[in-house]
From TrEMBL:
Keywords: Guanine-nucleotide releasing factor
InterPro entries: Ras-like_GEF (IPR008937), Ras_G-nucl-exch_fac_CS (IPR019804), Ras_GEF_dom_sf (IPR023578), RASGEF_cat_dom (IPR001895), RASGEF_cat_dom_sf (IPR036964), Ubiquitin-like_domsf (IPR029071)
An example molecular function term from Gene Ontology annotations: guanyl-nucleotide exchange factor activity
Highest taxon in the source lineage: Eukaryota
Encoding gene, per UniProt annotation: rapgefl1
CDD domains: RasGEF
GO CC annotations on file: plasma membrane
Annotated GO biological process: Ras protein signal transduction
Protein name: Rap guanine nucleotide exchange factor-like 1
Length: 346
């Protein structure tokens, strides 16, 4: 399901395949607009446009495919006539932020971490091992795009921005300290459940410069939590080729969710440091190494993760919240918010 906005920021919701062509998306939008009371006159020649939170626009061709996976964290699809292209603006909530209490205050860290793990597992389970190879070896030239893998990478970025957004929107110092504690606890629970994707995404979100500079907030954190976060930072430390992370993941047994960007980094290094062919001869040593990495990915999913099936109202509310995170991805705006909370040292 996806929202497609019009120039006045009203929208229609369509259901579509990830691989759908732009022409098919526009046909679905046109059909929805026919029955919309807000749109008494059906537009003529529609185009599909991606608009970022910074106001940048990209117009898609009718033959383009899989546009959903090309969107950034806060990039939305708009449809309009060509003459209306210049008038398209980002959604108001992406330009102006509203301070206030987070829904997260009313949710338990256990519930949120469980929902993060379940959703990450759903996304990771849909990624075919060949998608990793195609992503690195062929990129945009491949016959088919690694759509499910791109969704996992989007999710990783989204969780990082979510952590920063929630903390920086909180105006009360005591509540901000509570949120900091809760995020560290969420990271610990994700690590305990072997979801290293959300674990490291939360840690990297807390390491965002706009969050890490909040001296008063971090000083309010109990020593036990500060020490725990330092341990988490050491796992995220990229020195010695991510040794701490590699030691951790080697010690775990499946099922587990790896930090996907590092898998792609390893595959990219292997691909770019070794030629696939020597003259007309295939470099089988390289192919064996690639195959071993594919087997490792397969091994991560060799056991099934136990999925949570609870249906209480609070559970469903948390599930909806985790799957539709509202985030700010503009780093300049995040830094401005940070400085309003705690002014720069003079």
């Amino acid at each position: 399901f996806c929202r497609v906005y019009t120039p006045d920021h009203s929208y229609v919701t369509i259901r579509s395949r990830l691989s759908c062509r732009v022409g098919e998306i526009l046909a679905l939008v046109r059909e929805k607009l026919q029955y919309s009371e807000d749109q008494p006159v059906l537009p003529g020649n529609l185009i599909l446009v991606a608009v970022t939170s910074a106001g940048e626009k990209a117009v898609f061709r009718p033959s383009d495919e899989a546009v959903f996976t090309t969107l950034g964290v806060n990039t939305h699809l708009f449809t309009c006539e060509p003459s209306e292209l210049e008038s398209l603006l980002p959604l108001p909530e992406e330009i102006h932020w509203t301070p206030g209490d987070s829904k997260l205050h009313d949710m338990s860290a256990e519930e949120v971490s469980n929902q993060l793990v379940v959703f990450d597992w759903e996304l990771f389970s849909c990624v075919h091992e060949v998608e990793f190879v195609c992503y690195v070896f062929h990129g945009e030239q491949s016959r088919w795009r690694p759509l499910n893998l791109e969704l996992v990478l989007q999710r990783c970025s989204e969780v990082q921005h979510w952590v920063a957004t929630e903390i920086l929107q909180c105006q009360s110092l005591p509540k901000r300290v509570q949120l900091l504690r809760k995020f560290i606890k969420i990271a610990a629970l994700c690590k305990q459940q072997q979801d290293l994707l959300s674990f490291l995404a939360v840690v990297l979100g807390l390491d965002n410069p706009a969050v890490s500079r909040l001296r008063l907030t971090w000083e309010g954190l109990p020593g036990k939590f500060r020490k725990q976060f330092q341990q988490f930072e050491s796992i995220a430390d990229p020195s010695r080729n991510h040794k701490s992370y590699r030691d951790l993941i080697t010690s775990l047994r499946p099922p587990l969710i790896p930090f996907t960007p590092l898998l792609l980094k390893d595959l990219t290094f292997l691909h770019e440091s070794c030629k696939s062919f020597h003259g007309e001869l295939v470099n089988f040593e390289k192919m064996h190494k690639v195959a071993e990495m594919v087997r490792i990915i397969r091994r991560y999913r060799s056991s099934q993760l136990a999925m949570d099936t609870e249906t209480s109202p609070s559970h469903l509310q948390t599930k909806a919240y985790v799957r539709q995170l509202q985030v700010i991805d503009n780093q300049n705006l995040l830094f401005d918010m940070s400085c309003k909370l705690e002014a720069k040292d003079t």
